[in-house]
Every structure is written in structure tokens, then in C-alpha cells.
């Protein structure tokens, strides 16, 4: 095959790949999930201004940046540009983690939340931590102790079948970082609390227990115990 023929073939392949990439990118674009409650519904524990900024600005930025980064990554894959693929990994981790973490976080909260969990979740907590109060104390301490920005998590260990408490820095996703399946997350980035609680993170962590949606957390655990592990795509909701 002559050089001109090869060039022509490459151009035809590129012309074929480009529309396909466009279709894939459009199909898998992530979107900001709607909340099932108003921004002011969690007051006085989390005020409306924080919720509005947190959801419509901060989370929306993670979603937008994730879509842009994934599009660039698809282009790098199509070109076989490994250097570009590697350079995009931090942005994928940060923005993808931010989207996953916040999508879980909103469902973990409810204006009808608080109190204590029931059923299988309560039994698992008593088994693995001794009591609900012991869980609260341990998770609060781990969350408050996060250096800088990050998350405190209650996760499910698929290997042992037990609940675990841990923390992740920045927007590192729990499952991708530790292997634990996320059940309950507490965001301790300053944008989650500073407008209301200033620099007193312990007060914010103490208050958030009043709006924890234990019904949601119990549902997540039940699905894990049934072996019906939810994929990241299901956590993020349907794509546009």
C-alpha cells in the first residue's frame, strides 16, 4: 500500500471515529441530580444558603468538569495518546469522586432524618460497634479529624461482611480508594459548613446527625447484604 493510500485510510478512519466519540460523549454525559427536598428543608441544622451553593454551584462544577475531562479522555483514547490519558487521571479522580460523593451525600440527608436506624442496619451497627452511640462517636471523631478537606464514611466491607468507618481526603471516592462500599458520607469540605459554622467543624458534624436519612442508609445496606451491589452508574443516576 502506498503512503498516500495509507494517509487516506487513516483520514477515513478518523472521520468514522469522530462521530462515534461524539455519540458516546453525548450518551454518557453526567447531570446534576435533583434534590428530593428544598434547599431550606434541612434548617436549622444546614441552612438554605449553604445547600443552594453546595448543590447548584459546587456539585454542578464537578459534573461539568467531569464531562469535559471524560470528553478529553475519549479523544486521547482514540488517538492512542497515553501521555494525555495519564495526565487526565487526577482530574477524573477529583471530579468523578466529587460527583459520586455528593450524589450519595444528598440521599443520605432528609428533613425527616435523625433519630436512630432500625432493622438490619441497627443490628449491624450493634454487632460491629457495640451501640449506635459508639458508632456516632467513632464516626464523628474520624470525620472531624480529617486534615484539610475530605469526607468521613461509613462503609460496608464486602470481604468481612462488616461495617467500617474511615475517612478519605479531598474528593477521593470511598470504593475506589478503600474497596469499601459507601453507605453514609459526611462532607467536611469548608463549603459544606463554613457559612454557618465558621471554623467550628465539630459543631457541624454534631448537627448533621439530626438530618441523616437512616432509611436511605438502611436500604443501601440491605442491597449489599442481598448481594445486589449498586454500580457507580446506578449511584449517579441515569445519564442524559
From TrEMBL:
It comes from the Eukaryota. Residues 117-216 form the Manganese/iron superoxide dismutase C-terminal domain. InterPro entries: Fe/Mn_Superoxide_Dismutase, Mn/Fe_SOD, Mn/Fe_SOD_BS, Mn/Fe_SOD_C, Mn/Fe_SOD_N, Mn/Fe_SOD_N_sf, SOD_C_sf. It is found in: Mitochondrion matrix. Mn(2+) binds at residues 54, 102, 187, 191. Destroys superoxide anion radicals which are normally produced within the cells and which are toxic to biological systems. Destroys radicals which are normally produced within the cells and which are toxic to biological systems. The gene is SOD2. Homotetramer. This is Superoxide dismutase. Its cofactor is Mn(2+). Keywords: Manganese, Metal-binding, Mitochondrion, Nitration, Oxidoreductase. Residues 29-110 form the Manganese/iron superoxide dismutase N-terminal domain. GO terms for cellular component: mitochondrial matrix. GO terms for molecular function: manganese ion binding; superoxide dismutase activity. Its EC number is 1.15.1.1. It catalyses: 2 superoxide + 2 H(+) = H2O2 + O2. GO terms for biological process: innate immune response; neutrophil homeostasis; response to cadmium ion; response to methylmercury. The lineage of its organism: Eukaryota, Metazoa, Chordata, Craniata, Vertebrata. Belongs to the iron/manganese superoxide dismutase family. Gene3D superfamilies: Fe,Mn superoxide dismutase (SOD) domain, Iron/manganese superoxide dismutase, C-terminal domain.
